[in-house]
Amino acid sequence: MFLNKGDKAPDFTLKNYDEQQVSLKDLKGSTFALWFFPKANTPGWTNQGNGFRDEFKKFQKKNIQIVGVSADSPSKQKKFVDKYNFPFLMLCDESHDMLKAYKAWGLKKFMGREYEGIYRITYIVNKNGIIDKVFEKVNTKTHACDILDSIK
To answer: I want to staple 17 with a disulfide (CB 3.0 to 4.6 A). Which of 42, 70, 78, 135 is the partner?
Structure first.
């Protein structure tokens, strides 16, 4: 269902929370954790984002950038980034094109209702643009530490 270890990371160009364009080619040459989340300013996303913020220096020591992606507008993400002092890159895919390319968008179920939305998934992409790890099951409270523990 998701992309797999060894797959080439699909190309993209998206705006960040400051309305600047960011592309995959801008990130090549470094390893990054590409994490997808349903919506800014929700409890789960806040837990997950705070975890990445709190462990940010450990990711830096391992030379891993953190890149979050949602379908939120740049202005909505900017407010959230500022509110919680997130020091990492946040990208906005309002068209859902990149989300679909990374298989992070699809049919979800909640309380018997089906709808389309963003899956919580994280890919570790290496400096050559190849997916090294896939985290399909995400615990929002421990996700940042779970990633760090998996990378020795």
So the answer is: 78
Phi, psi dihedral angles at 109 (to 5 degrees): -130, 140
Q: How far apart are CA 98 and CA 148, in angstroms?
A: 25
30-78: pLDDT as tens digits: 999 999 998 887 777 788 999 999 999 999 999 999 999 999 999 999 9
Contacts of 149 (CB under 8 A, 6+ apart): none
Q: Please give the structure tokens belonging to residue 30.
A: 């470094």
Phi and psi, residue 68, nearest 5°:
-100, 150
- Give the pLDDT confidence of 2-18 residue by residue, as tens digits: 999 999 999 999 999 99
Provide the CB-side half-sphere exposure for 115 (13 A, CA). 7
Rounded distance between C-alpha atoms, residue 21 and residue 87, angstroms? 18
> Partners of 122 in the beta sheet?
35, 135
Size of the chain in residues = 152
- Note if the pTM is more than 0.70: yes
